[in-house]
Design brief:
The complex is a heterodimer of chains A (about 325) and B (about 100).
Chain A lengths: L3 H7 L8 H12 L12 H20 L1 H5 L8 H26 L5 H9 L16 H22 L5 H29 L3 H20 L11 H6 L7 H19 L9 E2 L5 E2 L5 H11 L3 H14 L1 H23 L1
Helix pairs in contact in A: 3-5, 5-8, 7-8, 7-9, 7-11
Chain B lengths: L7 E7 L7 E7 L3 H12 L7 E6 L11 H9 L19
Classes of the chains: A mainly alpha (about 325), B alpha+beta (about 100).
Protein name (chain B): Ring-1,2-phenylacetyl-CoA epoxidase subunit PaaB
Pfam family, one (chain B): PaaB
Organism (chain B): Bradyrhizobium shewense
């Protein structure tokens, strides 16, 4: 079980790591064993996973904002119900992930506070605005499509609670991508204006979506140890290539043009994309994307406005517990 | 100001009639009633369950993974606890 108390109590005597334990740990990883919360693990493994899982959780929660923007303006009741269900799912995914991160010994409250203070990162993609209804289709099709590409190998991640959370997430996420593609298909079969709207959304989202997979392998800082620990099974560039190869035929079916005139198909059938503008990626990560400030402001506002609910629930629970103790004493 | 911690609960769900409750994950809630409602919203959005148990995480006592050997090895050598240990002639038929 994933009780925080067990983890925090043991943290102190883990300061000094001996090489023997580290070697045993690596042997377990190499044998494809899953690591569970109360097993011994190197401090750096714990730290890397806490950072990765909490960032993943923050991304799910912040990711509700660009889509939530369109719930009241969905074009039909069917679309509205689907979008509402999708945004609810993202919230659920954030909660599974916070629960998985907590098993490593940092409380959800601390993780959330770090995000609200601007100290923790979330996916760069959610700092772009959703300007039209076609953006909702594009997010489902491409952003969720890219997320699935990244999350499927995570179902086999060496850390048990993270892998199990990913299995649940992947099961639920496939509806997200399909509903997005259906929106795009409807727009592309509609009027000229609707098709233009779909093309415009693809033009704006394509490059930011490719950036979701992270920096190229030649410059990625965390990849080597993450691969050794089997947190990561494929490199950023490998996943990006898989995504592009899967997406190009889907775009062709829609009759849309990928906004990369230099794209060519090589002899092995892989679609080779042009150079990605990494300065834009760095700018968005550094807090200078189109919506960074809005997103954090919206999260802070929601957190502050929910404070009275948390306080009321806590004081009600305390009052009830007090009364039960008093009754038991009588 | 740091956000105060809300208690942690473990969630168990009976997915179908006749099956046992199975651990599905955990959540935070200030009391049992809210924990049940949150479990409904987080873990049964697609008809995954017929019944939910929520248990305060602090109420669970877990075995120590470092003592796994001492706990479970004694059973490994006792192959005579399995039916395949015993020989029954084929003529006797299924037993």
């Amino acid at each position: 079980m994933y009780t925080q108390a067990l983890n925090t109590a043991e943290t102190d005597d883990r300061g000094l790591e001996d090489a023997g334990r580290a070697a045993q740990f690596q042997a377990r990883i190499d044998a494809e064993e899953r690591i569970e919360p109360n097993d011994w693990m190197p401090a750096a493994y714990r730290k890397t996973l806490t950072r990765q899982i909490s960032q993943h959780a923050h991304s799910e929660i912040v990711g509700m904002l660009p889509e939530g923007n369109w719930i009241t303006r969905a074009p039909s009741l069917r679309r509205k119900a689907a979008l509402l269900a999708k945004v609810q799912d993202e919230c659920g995914h954030g909660l599974y992930l916070y629960a998985a991160a907590e098993t490593l010994g940092t409380s959800r409250e601390e993780l959330v506070d770090a995000m609200l203070a601007g100290k923790a990162k979330y996916s760069s993609i959610f700092n772009y605005p959703t300007l039209t209804w076609a953006d909702i289709g594009t997010i489902g099709w491409l952003v969720d499509g890219a997320a699935i590409m990244n999350q499927i190998p995570l179902c086999r991640c060496s850390y048990g609670p993270y892998a199990r959370a990913m299995i649940r997430v992947c099961k639920e996420e496939s509806f997200h991508q399909r509903q997005g593609y259906e929106i795009m298909l409807t727009l592309c079969r509609g009027s000229e204006e609707q098709k233009a709207m779909a093309q415009d959304a693809l033009n704006r989202w394509w490059w930011p979506v490719l950036m979701m997979f992270g920096p190229p392998d030649s410059t990625s800082q965390h990849s080597d140890t993450s691969t050794k620990w089997k947190i990561k099974r494929f490199s950023n560039d490998e996943l990006r290539q898989k995504f592009v190869d899967a997406t190009v035929p889907q775009a062709q079916y829609l009759g849309l043009t990928i906004p990369d005139p230099g794209m060519t198909q090589d002899a092995d059938g892989h679609w080779r994309y042009s150079e990605i503008d990494w300065t834009e990626f760095k700018q968005v990560l550094a807090g200078n994307g189109p919506c960074n400030r809005d997103r954090i402001a919206a999260r802070r506002k929601a957190h502050a406005e929910g404070a009275w609910v948390r306080e009321a629930a806590a004081s009600y629970a305390a009052k009830r517990a007090h009364r039960q103790t008093a009754q038991a004493a009588e | 100001m740091a956000t105060p911690n809300t208690p942690l609960w473990e969630v168990f769900i009976r997915s179908r009639n006749g099956l046992a409750h199975k651990h599905v994950g955990s959540l935070h809630a200030s009391d049992a009633t809210m924990a049940l409602q949150a479990a409904r919203d987080i873990y049964t959005r697609r008809g995954e369950g017929l019944s939910i148990w929520v248990v305060p995480s602090t109420a669970i006592t877990a075995s120590d993974p470092t003592e796994k050997g001492m706990m479970f090895e004694p059973a490994e050598s006792k192959i005579y606890r399995h039916p395949t240990f015993y020989e029954v002639p084929e003529e006797v038929g299924h037993m």
